[in-house]
Amino acid sequence: MLCTECLTLNGHHPNCPNAEGAPEPTFTIWRVGTPVDVKLRNRAEMRTAAQKLSFCAETVLRDGEADIVISGGVVIGGCYIDDEGLLDYE
Ligand SMILES: [Zn+2]
Q1: CA of 24 to the centre of ligand 1 (A)
Q2: Contact 77/67 with Cβ under 8 angstroms?
Q3: In what order do the strands lie in the sheet with 34-40?
Q4: Ligand 1 center to residue 73 CA distance, Å?
Q5: Which residues fall within 8 angstroms of residue 73, CB to CB, at 6 or more apart?
Q6: What would the DSSP string read from start to end of 48-70?
Q7: 90, 31 contact by CB (below 8 A)
Q8: 25 C-alpha to center of ligand 1: Å?
Q9: Pairwise CA distance, residues 28 & 12, whole Å
Q10: What are the pLDDT tens digits along the chain (90 aa)?
Q11: 23 CA from centroid of ligand 1 (Å)
């Protein structure tokens, strides 16, 4: 099995989110004109939100953040990985 997150065969990179016991990152979505940020508890929720709001989930996971851009290149919000997502909060 090739891991789709860390691209390691039959195992995981130590920092791989799929590795045993790895904490799920949490995410925050902010939007222009919306005072309350949206909190997402895991990657699955973030990927769902990415489809709804048209930002790139892969960019968030790779770069730590991505913008929500509408036509004309106007940024209307974004999504970023919370720092506290690195803590295990189970
Ligand atoms: Zn992995």
Answers
A1: 13
A2: yes
A3: 34-40, 27-31, 74-81, 65-70
A4: 34
A5: none
A6: HHHHHHT--HHHHHHHSEEEEEE
A7: no
A8: 14
A9: 26
A10: 899 988 999 988 877 878 887 778 899 999 999 999 999 999 999 999 999 999 999 999 999 999 999 999 999 999 999 975 445 544
A11: 13
